[in-house]
């Protein structure tokens, strides 16, 4: 874990923040990973069956783990109700998928800020300690919240500069899988056009003074994508770690059995 501030203070970090991705809908998974020393844990609601109730328990579990690991929730969509209900759970940051225009980014900020700057509704929820710290919550929420938006298409990359300039957007996140898919170059990580799009997104973030992040799911990808110059990296996915570890144990065990034979 870095010694600098977390996701809400990512501009202060001198080294990239390193996180991991949680797709398994279980508080124990969240607690285990949050206790390992990652800077942040990313919880996915876009491509998983995780409900709001389960997400709330996963965030509680992550907060209960040793250390000061931040929590980032990738929401299912940019609907104002989705954003409001997710923020009411009290994560450190949100990541909104499939953002392609500055107008969409502006709507996300508007839906996630309290009046008079925005139109987010106020409730007696976990984020405000169920109303016990309501006034403090309203006054300080912007200091402890980060908003990231995901670039997953050529159109998104083309508009990255304008998206990054939107007040209230703290960073961009390159979704490499969907970006390559949208380009007709699925999984071609060394493709020149793909890398040019990545470079363009990184440059847009730098010019706007906001953070840039991405995902890596292998040792090779982690090395390559840190070389992109990102400020935060999701360095793996829980289900893949589970499958890889279990496969390695199986292969090793079968090798021992064959050796004994």
From TrEMBL:
<feature type="domain" description="HpcH/HpaI aldolase/citrate lyase">
    <location>
        <begin position="18"/>
        <end position="243"/>
    </location>
</feature>
<comment type="similarity">
    <text>Belongs to the HpcH/HpaI aldolase family.</text>
</comment>
<dbReference type="GO" id="GO:0016829">
    <property type="term" value="F:lyase activity"/>
</dbReference>
<dbReference type="InterPro" id="IPR015813">
    <property type="entry name" value="Pyrv/PenolPyrv_kinase-like_dom"/>
</dbReference>
<protein>
    <submittedName>
        <fullName>HpcH/HpaI aldolase/citrate lyase family protein</fullName>
    </submittedName>
</protein>
<dbReference type="GO" id="GO:0046872">
    <property type="term" value="F:metal ion binding"/>
</dbReference>
<dbReference type="Pfam" id="PF03328">
    <property type="entry name" value="HpcH_HpaI"/>
</dbReference>
<dbReference type="InterPro" id="IPR050251">
    <property type="entry name" value="HpcH-HpaI_aldolase"/>
</dbReference>
<keyword id="KW-0479">Metal-binding</keyword>
<dbReference type="InterPro" id="IPR005000">
    <property type="entry name" value="Aldolase/citrate-lyase_domain"/>
</dbReference>
<keyword id="KW-0456">Lyase</keyword>
<dbReference type="InterPro" id="IPR040442">
    <property type="entry name" value="Pyrv_kinase-like_dom_sf"/>
</dbReference>
